[in-house]
Amino acid sequence: MEKQIIQSSNAPAPIGPYSQAVKAGGFVFVSGQVPIDPATGNLVTGDIATETTQVMENLKAVLTAANLTFNDVIKTTIFLTKMSNFAAVNEVYGQYFSDNFPARETVEVSGLPKGVNVEISVIAGA
C-alpha cells in the first residue's frame, strides 16, 4: 500500500519521529494534536476551551493540507487528563462539526506530551 506524508506549516511541527498525517488506502490518519501555536512553537495555556480551540485549529490545518475538512472526518479520539473537562472540550469540539458527526471515543489519561490537558487525533476519508 502506498502512503503519502501530509505536512502543514500551519500546524505544529512534530516533536518526535512521526508525521503530522499519513494518507494511505483512501484514508488520512492525523496524529494527535496538542495546543501548540504553530507560529511561535509555544504551548497555548489558559482554560481548557482555549487549549481545545488551538488543538482543533491545528487539526484543521493538517486536514486542509490534505485537501479535506472536518466534514471528511470519520473518527476522532480525544485524550483528556481530567474527564471533568469533558463538557468544555465537547462544546468547542462541536463547533467544528455541523452534521454527520464522526465516531468518537474520549478517554482520561494520566499524562500527555508537554504536560497538556487535551490531545485529539482524527481519521478522515480521502
From TrEMBL:
Q: What single Pfam family name could you report for this chain, choosing any that match? A: Ribonuc_L-PSP
Q: Name one GO molecular function term.
A: deaminase activity
Q: Which Gene3D superfamilies match?
A: RutC-like
Q: Name one GO cellular component term.
A: cytosol
Q: What InterPro entries does its record include?
A: RidA, RutC-like_sf, YjgF/YER057c/UK114
* Superkingdom per UniProt: Bacteria
NCBIfam families referenced in this protein's UniProt entry, alphabetically: Rid family detoxifying hydrolase
Q: Which family does it belong to?
A: Belongs to the RutC family.
Name of the protein in its database record: 2-iminobutanoate/2-iminopropanoate deaminase
What is the scientific name of the source organism? Chitinophaga costaii
